[in-house]
Amino acid sequence: MDYFSSDFKLGILGGGQLGKMLLYETRKYDIFTRVMDPGEDAPCRIACNEFVKGDLMDFDAVYRFGKKVDVLTFEIENVNVSALERLEKEGVKVYPSPATLKTIQNKAKQKLFYVDHNIPTAPFTRFAYTSEILTSLKNESIRFPFVWKSAQFGYDGRGVKVIRTYSDLDDLPNVECITEEMIPFKNELAVIVCRSTEGQVTTYPVVEMEFHPTANQVEYVVCPARIDAKVAEKAQLVALRVSEAYKHVGLLAVEMFQTQNNDILVNEVAPRPHNSGHYSIEASYTNQFEQHLRAILGLPLGSTTSKVGGIMVNLTGEEGYTGKVKYRNMEDIMKLDGVTPHIYGKKETRPFRKMGHVTIVNKDIDKAREIAEKVKNTIKVVS
Amino acid sequence: MDYFSSDFKLGILGGGQLGKMLLYETRKYDIFTRVMDPGEDAPCRIACNEFVKGDLMDFDAVYRFGKKVDVLTFEIENVNVSALERLEKEGVKVYPSPATLKTIQNKAKQKLFYVDHNIPTAPFTRFAYTSEILTSLKNESIRFPFVWKSAQFGYDGRGVKVIRTYSDLDDLPNVECITEEMIPFKNELAVIVCRSTEGQVTTYPVVEMEFHPTANQVEYVVCPARIDAKVAEKAQLVALRVSEAYKHVGLLAVEMFQTQNNDILVNEVAPRPHNSGHYSIEASYTNQFEQHLRAILGLPLGSTTSKVGGIMVNLTGEEGYTGKVKYRNMEDIMKLDGVTPHIYGKKETRPFRKMGHVTIVNKDIDKAREIAEKVKNTIKVVS
Question: Cβ of A341 and B294 within 8 Å?
């Protein structure tokens, strides 16, 4: 199959920052792309060959879009799976497959999947409705504190909440959900596994994630994780087992907990380019977006090793600012060594909205971490 | 000045591969761009915010285009300078300046500029018309062999020819030109200097260029150049002197000869992102396109050091093939370590046309050179 400067068409569902960064790679290879997103000025609007405004959860919109491409992928899980299944039946190559997506989209199903495949994960209880949690609390089958997760459409901290008292339950939506035991973990780790249509598999190094205390968003991603080599190896093996179980095509980001006694528990997965892999644009021989593209097109996968240490800082909207975005002190961070800002192109900021990220690369990871701290404390996303 | 996700407008004259790679950076920063190019499907057409089809040598077209931007730059020297001068007078920031461009556009003027500034360059003679060369040959003021260069619009080997006999002169255009003594050189080297509107100056490492024997196009660019440290230092200093003399803003690529007795002679310069700097996308902390952008916007310049060794192989159309392009054996080169193909997106190939390039990065530059050789011998641009 000719992909380069040819008539081949790649479809991408979702036109956000992940799609935008994927488009850098399709442009590099001169691969024709069609993108669908509901947003009039989605970050992907520019740099794709054709942009279609459409509802990603609407069967007809997704189906009509998919019929006009040779390979279909997505940058967000919240898409109409029935349409993907229909397209797959009708011969459109959909990667990752609707089957994979279905299991991952629903967090309750995802947890059951781990149990079925003997993949270590935090103990949990499944509820058809949030209101049923009260009964389980009363008969003490679950205890405070615990983590509440809505089964559907959890994203960027929405749909996840730590519950310490009855009152914390009040403002939760009454939906299908799970409750998870709070794991007293040493570290949150992630490994991105990539699997091509040809069955070739590569894993990226283990990264270490530092979360924002209140917003439940990643603040720093550090590659390589500053952990014991044995623990890193264990995390890699667990990630590979998860990947093997899903038999996905393309990227699978596996988020894990390192417990106090160095066990690895799978937290959740994402079948797409992932925030924990953004550092790879500057640090890796092959970045995650190019790797995903290679994988779904059946091209040879590239090297996932790092040229240098990399740290990623998320740029999120400051609390107390909503409206037309301004990036304060950009010039100050650009003076620092090995600093690359990525501005996603969202015109409006709001508290904790992901507006961009900054990558800090350095041969010395501790030096990179120092600079990352400076970046974090200097740049402000305001309005 | 706010550049990021703001109303600021950057204008780029020329929509070829250099502009295309510059647009990766404007997208990364979410900077609004307008591009003008005569080609209906120029590589820049996608990924800029506004595309204008227009003749770059036409005063009105360039003037009208320039009036609608805050900062104007170009990716090709062959643009209407009078229009740039008018725009500059009327307050549009034009980088590099029309004054710089004027001296560089005309190779005869360029050579005289070096003489005026005591910058070492190959001995040359200037002719108003090619036909006048015959007289100088007869009265032996010049001798075979020599290099003929048209004063205007030399690009990609067009406008340059080695002259060994009278008959070599036959098919040359009768235009303003220079003849240059053939320099028996050890190496062709290049140094890219960057100078910001704030006067900050950085230089990239010295690279070594290997030319195609007949097509007079670069085949390999090797960074760092495998030469004596003293010679490299000398090349850096000469490049800085050239940059200091031009007082340009943005990138200045300085091509030089290393003579048999290790003198450095300036061959020619280009005031824009340059083929000899493409390796920097994968190998450098800050690639040349991002650096140019930082420079013309007055942002702090980034580090020009390399993460790893880098080699660039030009992808040019095979002899004997003209028409709809096909890239043969792409998958084979993508199997090799640290190989990144860049496909410019030109739909039609013809002999020696620049269709793309491939970067090979490796911690060991000799290993990279081996792989580059494989790449060169494997991939074929055909129709």
Answer: no
Mean pLDDT in chain B?
A: 94
Instruction: Confirm or reject contact between B299 and chain A (CB < 8 A).
Output: yes
Query: Residue A300 and residue B331: Cβ atoms within 8 Å?
Result: yes
pLDDT tens digit sequence for A331-354: 999 999 999 999 999 999 999 899
What are phi and psi for residue A315, nearest 5 degrees? -100, 105
DSSP one-letter code for A11 = E
Q: How many domains does one find in chain B?
A: 3
CB-CB neighbors (< 8 A) of A290 in chain B: 340
A368 located within any domain: yes
| CA neighbor of B190 nearest in space, from B209, B164, B166 | B209
Record the tokens describing residue B2, joined without a space: 């706010």
Nearest-Cα distance to chain A for B85, in Å, is: 30
Q: Which ipTM score applies to this complex?
A: 0.94
Cis check for the bond before B224: say yes or no (omega within 30 of 0): yes
Instruction: Confirm or deny that B267 is annotated as ligand binding.
Output: yes
A176 touching B (Cβ < 8 Å): no
- pLDDT given for residue B171 in this prediction: 85
Residue of A30, A223, A324, A325 for testing the chain B interface, max B β-carbons within 10 Å = A30
Q: pTM higher than 0.80, yes or no?
A: yes
Instruction: Find the domain containing A29 and state its range.
Output: 9-94
* B240 in the same domain as B209: yes
- Relative orientation angle of helices B98-105 and B107-116, to the nearest 10 degrees: 110
- For residue A24, list chain B residues with Cβ-Cβ distance below 8 A: 24, 27-28
| Burial annotation B267-297 (CB, 10 A radius, 16+ → b, else e) | bbbbbbbbbbbbbbbbbbbbbbbbbbbbbbb
Q: Are residues A242 and A312 in the same domain?
A: yes
Interface A:B, Cβ pairs < 8 A: 104
Q: Count of CB atoms within 10 A of residue B141's CB?
A: 10
Contact A44, A20 (CB under 8 A): yes
